[in-house]
Each structure stands twice: as structure tokens, then as C-alpha cells.
Amino acid sequence: MDRPLVAIARGGYSGESVISHQSAERMMLALDHDRYRGVFITISQDGWSAEDRHGNPLVLDRDGMTIQDMDGPGQVEMVLIAIHGSPGEDGRLQGFLDLMGIPYQTGGVLNSALTFSKHTTTALLRQLGHSVANSMLLHRDQGRDTGSLLARVGIPCFVKPDRSGSSLGISKVIHQNDLEQALTLAFEEDDVVIVEQAMQGRELTCGVVELDGRVVALPLCEIVTSHGFFDFDAKYHAKDTQEIVPAPVPDEVARQCQELSLSIYRELSCRGLVRIDHIWGAHGIGTIEVNTTPGFTAASIVPRMLAASGISEHALINGMVADALRRGAQPR
Prior knowledge:
The chain is built from 10 helices and 16 strands.
């Protein structure tokens, strides 16, 4: 029987492309090559290309989504999206694949586009009755009064690009004089920026995955860092960042956080593997962000959560592929 051709999409248009390549490599290692023909599709500002699992170039016809490898030409039958940021996390790639009739493991266009915007995600979660931080939205070309901004959200606060990942362009503002510099940094990543109240407490993150029709919350991770928050350097370079799995919190708190994460996953129509970040403090549990294509590198949190849950990376990756193939393409 012919093995379905599964393409792992990597790269992207943002500074997260290096992380995407690492995530894609790890996914390829976990893919069952007796069941599937695995290839890479690399997307960059320069265009699209295809490579075999060893990195050798292949011939890609993007218009027909066919790839020529040593076994001959093949139609891509499923795509594992490993792109963090645009176009894999914002709905653009999902829209293209929907038009091509090719299934993938993530949520659809609407889920991806909504969750990629921090402002939209926060507004939706607030409307659904969840605890989120107060925030204000700023556009690059609008005037701003830093005094009124800080009066609304308070100090300390976070300044974030509305649409970016891996904490790129994010600053924690402790003093009012630092706000302009933080805004400048954030506007380097996006034309839209949010200034957000810093919720006080311990940072907890929860992975959620759907396998074989069952949605499961993974063991919590507590993030402890000297950086003041979990920025890009703390995620991938800092030696003193601790990612503790399972998180050392009371059982009831862990249960509440997992149930909250499951609710958000379902309410926002997520699919596949998602990581949802929270703050647990005197206010209870507040939600920070929903990551629909979380990192899958050796330095990422998700592999540790999987290990603690007893779900192997092999079972996760091949399960998501099988589920997507069984579901078929999204309706056009």
C-alpha cells in the first residue's frame, strides 16, 4: 500500500523561523516512516521549496502541491504545520491548504487568525467570562498619551506586539520613563501594539491536545525566570530559567488550570496541540495567551509535558497525522 505523503511545513516570515526549523526536525524524527513518506516544505520570504527528511532538495509544484522525490511524484496528502508566526500561526497557510483540499493538524483559518492577535484573544476570553489582564491597543500612526496609558493599565505593565510569538518584541515596563523605548521595540515587530497590565503571580502553562477524538490536558509547567518574564532569551538561551514539570502547585489549582485550558481550547475551536499560558495569584487564575503552534524543540516545554503525561512524541505526531487524514480537508 502506498504511504501517504506528509509534508512538515517549516520556516515562515518572522524571527521565529530558526525555532520552526528545529521544531520541524523533531517532528520528522517522531514521524513513522514505515507508514508515511515524510518531506519538508520550507517557506520563507524568498518563496517555497521542498526537501527530503535528510535535507536534500526536491522538486515542488506549489500550484498542485505535488512533490517529486526518489519514489516518484506524489500529491501532498497532509501537512504538519511547524511554523511559529506567519504564515503558519495566523491562518494564511491554513487558508491556502483549505483551498487545495489538504488537511492539517491545527485549528482552521478563523481559530488561527483570532488567536494570533493577542488583543482579539483577550477580548474573546473576557467576553467568555475568563479572567484576563486590562489592556489598551495602539496603532503605529496614532498619537498616544503615555500618562493616560499607564493610568489605565498601571505599573508594572507589558508592551507587546499584537501579532508575534516567542515573546519577540515584548518588554516589561517597571518605570514610566521606559515606556517609549518599549513601544519602539514592539513596533519593530508589528504595526499594532498592546499595553497590558502585569498580572502578579506564578506563571503556569498547560498543553492541550486532541488525539483520536479525545481532548486531553497535559501536566502543568511552572516557569521561573530571573528575566522578569519569559522572553525569547529566557526561553531559548538563559541558564537560570526553570521549567518545572509537573508544576509544584496544589492539586486543586492544577485541576482548575487544566479544566480552564480545556474550556478555552473548546471555546476557541482549537485543534491539534495547543499551549495556553496563565498566571496564578491572589486573583485566581488569569489567562495570558493561547499558542496554537507551540515550540517542539529540545528547549521547548511541550516535550517535557508529554514525557510527564506518558504520551510519547511518536504517539502525538503520528496520532495528529492520522486524525487529520481521517477528518479530511476543511470545507471550502
